[in-house]
Design brief:
heterotrimer, A mainly alpha (about 280), B mainly alpha (about 290), C alpha/beta (about 240), A: mainly alpha, MetI-like fold, 2 strands, about 75% helix, C: about 240 residues, Rossmann fold, 4-stranded antiparallel beta sheet, about 35% helix, globular
Chain lengths: ~280, ~290, ~240
């Protein structure tokens, strides 16, 4: 009996240890970034520009850059994902749908750095030559590739949500003469909206949290981008770029502000997703 | 058959987006294959060092991909062996022991951790390294061990959830057989539940390996460098494939070096594809088997 | 039989994968009458019914051969012929299922759903037709004050009559019913039965039923189906 109790304690300990990592991550950043929270400095950092020459270490440009690139990625990925998941749910017959679904699942396994590498040598020159402006490293390039990166996550969520709409609803509509498109628009999408929003929120979390594509493709200029062809820097890329500076400098301390922001955003996304999932009523 | 206009639009849009997405992926893979396939050779992996001597560690390897490949493999092995015991144990707790509020709270923490961007985990790893460096005598710098630990944190929530799901998916009949014969809870977990859930857990572990192998953001903050040779110890800097690819994309000096970048990207893609296929295969066989026994 | 035929089934075969479900079914179904398909369970009754609005097409691996002729405006049309638009067919041939299947929306929207599908949005017309459909389905008095409540708050019998109203709104000439009372208690079943008798005036009804006494009470004509074959030719 003692062994039983010991094992249970050990399993509990493992779970608590694992959960404490979540807290530890945040606590570490808050403690190390503590000087930022004294005397309203944090507000200046959140709103000021990044001009190290003038001792201005604001991360506002990076906040805008992150939102711009993530928004563009979602704007690209959302219609694409809705289209592909509609194909899987209603338009294509069984075997094609299964094939497309496994191809999409495979896409989730493609390393981010591979997308980035191909982006640098294929899309960047293309953007540079098409728009004949700048280096081709810009919000547009990063947003497009990031869109392709997050699309599979969205598609898998969307098509699962569409497939979970009760079959009886679908048949009821078909028996009334609904065409496949009408079944999709009037029955499946309204019935799956929770899952669709969940997929969108998760994809937003991934888009904001991605480091590599922005770092490789957006040009990393620490300025507020004026348009999609301007270079921009994301919060994540900022962390990667400033990590080499002196650990005790104010410059370095701003990284914890970036880290806490990113943590807060993704945690909020997780909470939203859990709420959406929790409200889903019992299956009929 | 004449189609109503709405249906034509929906068909066109869904086929259009599917073909667009698939052709984009095909372009990515085709471009790499086209550019990278030409540069495969022994020299690519071993540089100027004779392969046998490199493998026997008689002579250091510079210029080839071997240090990056060995670096990635050691990183993955280390990170997974740190994460799997903890993740498995925590997953078992969640599925078999956890009840009510505590289980829900723990689940919330794991979900939040799963969403945290890897660069934030990297920042944490880096700060821990600096912290240790200052308080424990300056021996610790960002290194293989710190990277592996950070990566372990990154995949931990994923391992916990797959273990939990694999265990919870077992049918009630399987769950009750051993206790009916007088087995204790721990015996039931060890001799019945874990073996039955193993394929599900295993496919989760394989996908976690893929994440460790491809992640770049964590390691670039915690000890990976562009040139270090083969990793010498847990406390040394090291090379890794994804970082090498990233580095080449911006710092390549000549076409030959760029060609190794393409080849490295192709190798990494192949590794991840094989891991993905292995996980899918295990899952498929698992599906087939559970059908048979229904 | 003095009633004119509405549906003629000629040499209908249905395979589901390798399994033969219908084996050379030939039958005539009279207009403005209730025809009951009866027989042991699992022998193709529901399949025969779903062939009549080609809902069977949705089943994977299904193969149908033969002819099903239906008379619309005094012209016979083979609904199994290639090129028949399914949505057109299903607007002529309504269907009610074994378990009531209201869509997750309000009572009003459920009944008006088919109008939305056919692009009829004019509010006064829609209101009017919803009211009439609910009246024809004996439901209007029970729901007139709560048209905008969720349809799933209705009782089982009310839900089934809602589904009938929903099927009636396009004024189909044929109405298929797959054991429409099997999930209801006897009181609710009685209401449905009298409703079916009333609908006969304007509709051809084909229903699958398990209950001998129900068939005796309402059916004008019986098609006994077993092992995928019609046992004897129906006589009115």
């Amino acid at each position: 009996m003692d062994g039983e109790r010991l094992a249970q304690k050990a399993f509990l300990l493992a779970a608590v240890l694992s959960a404490s990592v979540t807290v530890l991550l945040l606590a570490f950043m808050v403690i190390l970034g503590l000087p930022l929270f004294q005397g309203g400095l944090v507000f200046r950092i959140l709103t000021a520009p990044w001009l190290p020459g003038r001792q201005l270490f604001g991360i506002w440009p990076m906040i805008v850059g992150t939102l711009a690139i993530a928004a563009l990625a979602l704007a690209v990925a959302f219609p694409l994902s809705l289209g592909v998941s509609s194909l899987i749910a209603v338009v294509a017959p069984g075997r094609i749908a299964r094939l497309v679904k496994s191809a999409v699942a495979f896409m989730t396994g493609i390393p981010t750095v591979v997308y980035g590498f191909v982006g640098v040598f294929l899309l960047v020159p293309l953007v540079r030559e098409t728009f004949a402006r700048g280096s081709g490293l810009c919000v547009l390039t990063a947003g497009l590739v990031l869109g392709i990166l997050v699309a599979p996550t969205m598609i898998l969520f969307f098509s699962d949500a569409l497939a979970r709409v009760p079959r009886s609803d679908r048949i009821a509509a078909e028996a009334l003469g609904a065409t496949p498109a009408q079944v999709l628009i009037y029955v499946l999408i309204p019935g799956a909206w929770r899952g669709i929003v969940t997929g969108l929120v998760l994809a937003a979390g991934r888009a904001v949290g991605d480091t590599l594509l922005a770092l490789m493709l957006a040009g990393n200029a620490a300025q507020v981008p004026g348009g999609v062809l301007d270079s921009a820097r994301t919060l994540t890329a900022h962390i990667a770029l400033v990590i080499a500076s002196d650990f005790d400098s104010l410059e370095f301390k701003t990284l914890f502000a970036c880290g806490i922001l990113l943590y807060a955003f993704t945690a909020a996304a997780t909470l939203a997703v859990r709420r959406l999932a929790g409200k889903e009523g019992p299956a009929r | 058959m004449k189609q109503p206009p709405l249906d034509a639009v929906v068909r066109l849009a869904s086929w259009g987006s599917t073909l667009l997405l698939l052709s984009l992926v095909a372009t990515v893979i085709g471009f790499l294959a086209f550019k990278g396939a030409g540069s495969f050779s022994l020299e690519l992996v071993f540089g100027d060092t004779p392969p046998l001597e490199a493998l026997l560690l008689r002579r250091p390897v510079f210029g080839g991909l071997l240090p990056a490949i060995v670096g990635t493999v050691s990183l993955v092995v280390l990170a997974i062996s740190l994460a799997v015991p903890l993740g498995l144990a925590a997953g078992i707790y969640m599925a078999e022991y956890g009840r009510g509020r505590i289980q829900q709270a723990l689940g919330l923490f794991f979900d939040i951790l799963a969403g945290v961007p890897s660069i934030v985990v990297g920042l944490f790893g880096f700060s821990v390294a600096v912290f240790l460096h200052r308080h424990f005598g300056g021996r610790i710098y960002p290194c293989l061990l710190i990277s592996a630990l950070s990566l372990a944190f990154l995949v931990l929530p994923y391992l916990i959830r797959t273990t939990q799901n694999a265990l919870e998916a077992l049918p009630e009949a399987v769950r009750l057989t051993a206790p009916a014969l007088g087995a204790t809870r721990l015996q039931n977990i060890r001799f019945v539940l874990l073996p039955r859930a193993l394929p599900g857990i295993l496919s989760g572990v394989i996908l976690a390996i893929g994440r460790c192998a491809e992640d770049t953001a964590v390691i670039m903050l915690t000890g990976v460098v562009a040139s270090a040779g083969l990793p010498r110890s847990l406390f040394s800097a090291y090379e890794a494939l994804p970082f090498y690819i990233y580095y080449i994309s911006s710092q390549y000096r000549d076409p030959a070096e760029l060609a190794t970048g393409y080849a490295a990207a192709l190798i990494l893609l192949a590794i991840c594809a094989m891991l993905f296929a292995a996980a899918a295969l295990i899952r498929q066989r698992l599906g087939a088997r559970s059908h048979q026994r229904l | 039989m003095d009633r004119a035929a509405k549906i003629r089934i000629e040499h209908l075969f249905f395979h589901y994968g390798r399994r033969q479900v219908l084996d050379d079914v030939c039958a005539e179904i009279p207009s403005n009458a209730i025809t009951a398909i009866v027989g042991p369970s699992g022998q193709g009754k529901s399949t025969l019914l779903t062939c009549l609005n080609r809902l069977c097409d949705a089943v994977a691996d299904a193969r149908v051969s033969g002819r099903i002729l239906m008379r619309f405006e005094d012209r016979w049309q083979d609904i199994l012929a290639p090129g028949v638009p399914l949505h057109w067919l299903r607007r002529q041939v309504g269907m009610v299922f074994q378990a009531p299947n209201p869509l997750p929306m309000s009572i009003f929207k459920n009944v008006a759903f088919a109008l939305k599908l056919t692009g009829q949005h004019r509010r006064p017309d829609v209101n009017d037709r919803v009211t009439r459909a609910l009246e024809r389905a004996f439901l209007w008095n029970e729901v007139r004050d709560r048209l905008h409540h969720d349809a799933r708050t209705l009782s089982g019998g009310q839900q089934q009559r809602l589904c009938i109203a929903r099927a009636l709104i396009l004024e189909p000439e044929i109405l298929l019913l797959d054991e429409p009372t099997s999930s209801l208690d006897s009181q609710a079943s009685e209401v449905i039965e009298s409703l079916l008798l009333a609908l006969r005036e304007r509709c051809t009804l084909v229903m699958v039923s398990h209950y001998q006494d129900q068939v005796r009470r309402v059916a004008d004509c019986v098609l006994p189906l077993s092992s995928g074959k019609i046992q004897l030719l129906a006589t009115g």
